[in-house]
Fold:
Amino acid sequence: MNQYHFKQSFSADPTLSDKLFDLVEDTFPGLSSLAECGRKLGASWETASTPFIRFHDDVAITHVGVLEIPMHIMGQRVTAGGVHAVATRAEFRRRGYYRQVMEEVLEYCDQLYETLVLTTPQPEFYLPFGFRIVEEQIFKLQCDCTGDTDGLRILNFADIKDFTLLHRLLETRTPVSNVVGVVKEKPVFCVNEGSRSLYYVEDLDLIACMEIEDCRLHLFDLVATQICSLKEILARIPQHIEEVVIYFSPERLDVKDVQSFPHKLDETVLMVRGTFAAEGEKFMLPRSARC
Structure:
């Protein structure tokens, strides 16, 4: 049986969360606020992530987190390990601490997952550990559409009905794509999307992670028990839309004349370690599932 030196437990140490976020906030300003959004939506970081932390005089100096992401890849259910919130304090860098922690993380993960995923603007940090870059695509199509009904409303999570609705759909959602999608996942979604406006289409029973910029619709994810066509979604947006940009493989949206382009979402790349059946396909890991 392996003995881990850096693996920690939030439940065993009630002070651990504050020590961790003191570190990660120094590396990723604003992440603590996003994590708090997740907690308010009932999907806490502490219940989802397994932290591997190196300490120096009771101060967290290096962290690598691991969480599970239930994915749908090329039509098959895959439980992937998500590596996230990798951080080392500036004054402790270049001393080999990150390597020590990461090697232990991989020893742990190799017993549990055939696939590891992460997203990063700095892939060079992960290439030495067997991670590889997988190219992602966005999908664009031109249209001339103005919906004939106002079928959207922004969810209000202070209302228990909307809070319950979100959890129901996250628990029962169908993957947004058969190439790469996510099912029954809450913590990453709530951290990534909890501070943004989420739109609900009541007659379709669908949550849309989307933004409208002038006459351009950016569609990042759909949370529903049944994926409808893009035409049905556009019909419920009472605004002129000339272009739709889709940030996931759109084969379930019943669209034609779609063009795909290589794209780095927020200047990050997707990296995988182990098997990944969608490699070489045209897809993007939805924004809501990126860690």
Q: What stands out?
A: The domain at 138-263 is CATH 3.40.630 (Aminopeptidase). The first helix runs from residue 16 to 27. The chain is about 20% helix and 35% strand.
